[in-house]
DNA sequence: TATCTAATTAGATTATAATCTAATTAGATA
DNA sequence: TATCTAATTAGATTATAATCTAATTAGATA
């Protein structure tokens, strides 16, 4: 997940009124006037806060006649909540400082004449170095379709499905709804 | 956990610089100058952010000679993170500063031999305690007609209209279209 | 189409907070 | 004790955001 997304989530829920709205919606959907009444605030204020909660997808709405009911998206809330725990990466604990020379040598060992990989190393450490090497052609902050990722990986290695899965598992990439993004560098293993 | 504590936690981590500090400290303790250098900010700025992270106990420090090293308290971070998931459960009662003994005494002072109130206290704090006492006979999640509420209040106090109005004004209850409901506990004053 | 209800937007006010430079403090060392 | 290093505090500047009233918009209904 993008750093900014994590920050924005916490900025949004770091407000007393919005936490109270989340708390209210836990026991079921409510319309705007009801929320305003329960919290002792005016309708425009509630609109303002609901907009922010909708922006991060923690609240969604359904209209019934003139009235719009607001619902809590609990699974989204849980996923966003959990993201801060991953920041910095758990795999980061396996401190391995490998020099550029060593990396180059390992990459060369697994590369054929055409610059492609024949197989992935079994050793985790070496495998991460290869994965990182492949990643260098991708852009930070850009969103990729699964198909794009597959095609890109294939320019390096035949079994794109394995590599793509490894990218996500090692926290190099983040996948949401079939869309892939590079993780910020501070989430990478290594 | 108290509502304010949850809000304050998210307010604190809802900042890019502080998330980056947390991310850095995940791979081990660092001193202030090192953090400032890695983030491209000045020492006083880092002091400011570390203070906030220390205030919520997510960071602690150990001195070594002239240098202070800052550590991440990961278990605390996880516990605070999860609190928002629980919010809205009835576990928000801790915000009451007045002990049960004090409350009992105040209630006794305003009660006559028959267990009814002669008058309402002028002091807001005491009045809220009496109102809360009356409320205990009502059910959470149940809807009441105005008539029912009036009759119920009269078993405690003659001037039901005043009490009913106070209930709504103090956010103990919520009124929609002549129907009354108890508010969730975390909306209550005190 | 005219009118009603609920929600949203615009714009103002006010409060909060991120960052910096300059000054000060806490603690170690010679 | 004098001096050094790293951290903190004070105070200013600037940006962000919570809330309100008044105006507008979206959609339903007669």
From TrEMBL, chains A, B:
Keyword set includes Disulfide bond: no
Keywords from the named record: DNA-binding, Transcription, Transcription regulation
Domain HTH arsR-type stretches: 1-92
Cited Gene3D superfamilies: Winged helix-like DNA-binding domain superfamily/Winged helix DNA-binding domain
Domain of life: Bacteria
Pfam families for this protein: DUF2087, HTH_5
GO terms assigned for molecular function: DNA binding
Keyword DNA-binding listed: yes
Name this protein carries in UniProt: DNA-binding HxlR family transcriptional regulator
């Amino acid at each position: 997940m993008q750093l900014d997304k994590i920050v924005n989530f916490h900025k949004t829920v770091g407000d007393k009124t919005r936490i109270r709205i989340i708390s209210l919606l836990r026991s079921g959907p409510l319309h705007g006037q009801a929320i305003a009444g329960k919290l002792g605030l005016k309708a425009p204020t509630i609109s303002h806060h609901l907009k922010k909660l909708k922006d991060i997808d923690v609240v969604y709405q359904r209209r019934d006649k003139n009235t719009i009911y607001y619902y809590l998206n609990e699974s989204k809330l849980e996923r966003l909540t959990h993201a801060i725990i991953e920041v910095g990466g758990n795999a980061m604990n396996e401190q391995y400082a490998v020099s550029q020379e060593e990396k180059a040598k390992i990459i060369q060992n697994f590369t054929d004449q055409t610059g492609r990989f024949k197989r992935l190393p079994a050793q985790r450490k070496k495998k991460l170095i290869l994965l990182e090497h492949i990643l260098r052609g991708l852009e930070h902050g850009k969103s990729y379709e699964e198909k794009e990722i597959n095609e890109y990986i294939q320019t390096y290695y035949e079994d794109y499905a394995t590599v793509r899965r490894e990218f996500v598992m090692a926290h190099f990439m983040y996948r949401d709804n079939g869309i892939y993004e590079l993780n910020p560098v501070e989430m990478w293993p290594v």
